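hey team, just a heads up i'm posting the complex here instead of the shared drive bc the drive is being weird again. everything in one block, sequence lines first with there labels, then the predicted structure for the whole assembly after. its two chains so it's a bit long, scroll down
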Amino acid sequence: MKLSQLRAGDYAQIKALGKHPIANKLLEMGCLPGERLKVRRIAPFGDPMAIQILGYELALRRDEADAIEVELLPKSPFL
Amino acid sequence: MKNQIKIALVGNPNSGKSSLFNALTGLHQKVGNFPGVTVDKKTGSVALNSQLTAEVIDLPGTYSLYPRSEDEKVTFNVLLDADNPAHPDLVMIVADATNLRRHLLFITQIIDLGMPSVLVLNKIDMAEKRGIEQNTDELARILGIPVVATNARQESGLEELKKALAEQGARVSLPFYLPNSEIQPVLEEVSKMSGEPMGYRSFIYLCNHDHLDKLKAKEHARIDALIIKKEVNIQQLQARETVERYQQIAGLLTQIERKSHKSEDVRSERIDKILLHPIWGYTIFLGILFLIFQAIFAWASWPMEWIEKLFNGLGGLANQYLPESLLTDMLVSGVIPGLGGVVVFVPQIVLLFFFLALLEETGYMARVSFLMDQLMRRFGLSGKSIVPLIGGYACAVPSIMATRTINSWKERILTIMVLPLMSCSARLPVYTLLIGLSVPDDRVLGLFSLQGLVLMGFYLMSFFAAIGVALVLKWFIRERSSSYFLLEMPAYQLPRWGNIGMTLIDRAKAFVFGAGKVILAVSIILWALSSFGPGDAFTRLESQYAQEAMLNPSQELDNQLEHDKLAASYAGTLGKFIEPAIAPLGFDWKIGISIITSFAAREVFVGTMATIYSLGTADFEETTLKEKMLADTHPATGLPIYSLATTFSLLVFYAFAMQCVSTLAITYKETRSWKWPALQFVYMTGLAYLGSLLVYQLLK
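-- predicted structure starts here --
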């Protein structure tokens, strides 16, 4: 499933990055395959969303989150 | 003589870079511009020891050596191009200890460029609080560069840092990351073409030659040909570099970093629960906007009044003590009011930037973007546009300067273009005069003043006009770089007042010395336009009045002379000249003059009207002016000039027209091109003309 489909509070692991003009920028910001993340919150109007990744908080738009393929993880402490 | 070295300060945004810059250089800094771009160039000097001083240049923050914005391109070119005037002898890299992993991507890229470097591990105290322990000695050993730890406020480690910087010299460390072996043959050819060494420098040259300003078309073509010939996939190379670098970094961190099981930033999470709440979040943000609005609208008016009084006093003194001459007149009516017109903006600039810097410093600004992005994006604006837009209700000048926090060039330009539509405080005196003329002083529902409601209507209209125009303009402005929204939400922290103070000094200076020149020049031109007339009209008027004054001297006579002089001046001639063009809007030549003189600042309208209706400008009563204006009739028809149609047409004209030279000057300064202020002037004046035409023809 895509990162954009997750809800606030979900944990996930990144499987792959799809084609996107800023895919490389996403990598630089730490959205690496295999990396685990937590969806911190989704903005009141549904966009953008904020995720906890690589030990910091990153906000991104749905359009960008669409390019990130993830696997939902059972809720368990990590990071 | 002391030796001097050049040090570049680099790092990710939010690493505490500017704060370290301020701590190192203190007040010994100056702000300039990198040639050809709108990026601020901050330099400062620091004595490293008794023998050695350093010129420190604060380069724009970046996450990697792959630039995506104008700012990041500057950093890239300064570091990669040895002939760049800002190219450093030594690189000082700042990193945030609470998030070393992401910072190491850029750190190791800099090391691989083969430049002598020193790493500053910042916010070490915050990392400790979150249970993150780092072995800096081991980190220094592995990276091969000195590592100095400091806390978030740079209270500690500064002396140690200066020592490390002084001793580093030209030493470089071994590369951290090696590009994969398949690409080596290509890199060999790149190295031959460019003269760059074989390793990472050739790699980055290959991937990023597009961004290297020093290269000529021929050199770009040679690299492009090589890329095609060898079937190199640049995107893939970069992706691979990033992934492999992060893998190596993960390995490094297991050796030097220990995290307790709960290293999350709990405090920020708690604050965000309130500040990003669907209801409380917006309520608090609205409250903050109101506070800012209140500050620049009401609080700033005190010092602004003092400044006006001071310059009026100066003018009076000059009038009194200097001999009566053309030069004195220019000083009193052109230069002094012009200078006053520049300085009068400083309180608003300082107050607005105080709040902006506070929002940035504490980390709240990123949350504003998060909350407002979805709403503002529909209009082609950024979530960060909202603060400058509301600031525009007070004054467009500091607000345009405040758009620098907007990362996307297109969103920033759009914000700048529509900002002057916001109903600024200079329009208020014009509105009150004109609404007072045309709207009866009635109550609606026995509660609200009708005049107040009309005034509020104009304020609301200005906001909708601004976002409406943005909605149209967004189709005509091209995006310079791919639009994206990837925003680090920094941990909340208490503001560092020293940093805020530095920002305020910076901004005030930038305005006074940048836009100030243009404003002063235009004030003098406008003075000349209303002080000289074609032919000998002025001398004839003066001798005529001199005769009358001998017989019957009075204040009214003086006022009458001023009125006749203005009518005979170039401004008056111009007013009459444009009369046919503005007649369809219901304006006569007197209004034409006021429109022309309002170009210095909108509120000048009231003063010009006072002169036109032969009232002394010094201490006139607004009610007398209103009576005189209402009594004025068209010479041909005998109908009153200030009918409802004309007054509303004029109100609409002042709502939309670009009549502020200060705004044009600051737009030029912020965009580095006359194209944008010209476009502002044309579209706003066009909008004003059409709007007034419509209103007048409908109400007539």
